[in-house]
Amino acid sequence: MKFVKQEIVKGDDVKIDWHGHRDRGLGVVNCLAAIEAGVDRVHATALGVGERVGNAEMDLLIVNLMLLGTHRHDLQKLAEYCHLVADAVGVPIPVNYPVLGEDAFRTGTGVHAAAIIKAKKKGHDWLANRVYSSVPAEELGLEQRIDITPVSGLSNVKHWLETHGYDPEDEAACKTLFDAAKRTDRALSDEECHRLLKQAAWQ
User: Fold this and answer.
1) CA distance 203 to 192
2) How many other CB atoms sit within 10 Å of the CB of residue 129?
3) Of 9, 14, 74, 180, which is the most buried if we count CB atoms within 10 A?
4) What pTM was computed for the model?
5) Distance (Å, rounded) from C-alpha 111 to C-alpha 76?
6) Across all residues in the chain, what is the average pLDDT?
7) What is the mean pLDDT of residues 87-97?
8) Helix/strand number for the chain, H first, E second
């Protein structure tokens, strides 16, 4: 890009666009490099949808530009927009897709959850949204989710109880969910947790 600007396009009369694909998984990185090199415009598409392996992911590009301090617009509707695009073009968003995937801000690991919960309880929401994620969920209208999994600690269980209207200090409830999590190989769903607590109350 620098060569093109210095040796081929001299002056500001002709603008330079960068149009990158994802053949090597470097679409966003190449866009950022092109911007740094001085292009006037970059091309991207929602979720990277395009021919063959697709184009640079516009949503991830915008998030990175926000984190670099060059995109200062509200991104609260970005997730809604991308989900609308996914439905319209029939390209589901993978659960592990950065920022927008279902698992992007989800954790079930005890040490991760404990750090997030501790920050929230101290009133440090800014830190809670960054302690285990380089992308602040709240700036995208999203939030951290703490699950109960086989690798969870009691902090996960107490957080779930508190956020779902139960007494987080109820030892029987804590034991019920903690023991159930250790017997499974996945995260417990909200429905399962409610059912387990209801069954324990009947016994």
Assistant:
1) 17
2) 21
3) 180
4) 0.83
5) 29
6) 91
7) 95
8) 9, 4
